Amino acid sequence: DAGITQSPRHKVTETGTPVTLRCHQTENHRYMYWYRQDPGHGLRLIHYSYGVKDTDKGEVSDGYSVSRSKTEDFLLTLESATSSQTSVYFCAISEQVEWPQHFGDGTRLSIL
Amino acid sequence: GQQLNQSPQSMFIQEGEDVSMNCTSSSIFNTWLWYKQDPGEGPVLLIALYKAGELTSNGRLTAQFGITRKDSFLNISASIPSDVGIYFCAGQPFTGTASKLTFGTGTRLQVTL
Known about the structure:
By secondary structure, chain A is mainly β. Chain A has strands spanning 4-7, 10-13, 19-25, 31-38, 42-51, 54-57, 64-70, 73-78, 87-94, 102-103, 107-111. In chain A, strands 2, 4, 5, 6, 9, 10 and 11 form a seven-stranded mixed β-sheet that branches. A four-stranded antiparallel β-sheet of chain A has the order 1-3-8-7, with no helix packed on it. The N and C termini of chain A lie far apart (32 Å). By secondary structure, chain B is mainly beta. In chain B, 0% of the residues lie in helices and 51% in strands. Chain B is built from no helices and eleven strands. In chain B, the strands form two sheets. In chain B, strands 2, 4, 5, 9, 10 and 11 form a six-stranded mixed β-sheet that branches. Chains A and B meet through strand 5, strand 9 and strand 10 of A and strand 4, strand 5 and strand 9 of B.
């Protein structure tokens, strides 16, 4: 277990509501990532962070924002959730950018 | 965005058999990674490869970094029921590219007794 906790593990919400997912790590790794996993698309990067308050966009960042105020926490926010954002969201961490990423157990998000 | 092509998409094998799967890309990678994902869990790193031609083992698993740097192979010897899951490859083109890790489409492995 890579010391990554995602919360909540499951969430059902309605279109238009704000949603925040949390990723907490105990490894003190510099890099943190948010992915979504959808059938037929595999894992796609949403946003990543390379340090406290340092973030950048990934492949599918539209409709998502992130924040990292502490090394151990990386938050993913859907400001106004849409049904197309129904997915399984994974957080990952890595000590250095070129080192392998380790994943949390995911959050299953359903938007009705 | 680019996706890596993994084959086969799924496999149904008997316990004790050896398994081979591969991953190909149109781009060159500096790093190849292999992950396994069980239902309801996140991907778990199995093997990391950093050099063209490298052959690395982890127990019954062996993976190779292709000479062309555009492909990688994973072999599982003497499969057991707990090998069931989805296997993903991932490639990173060069260092300093946190946004460029690309994942394969996955190979679903099912093992019968």
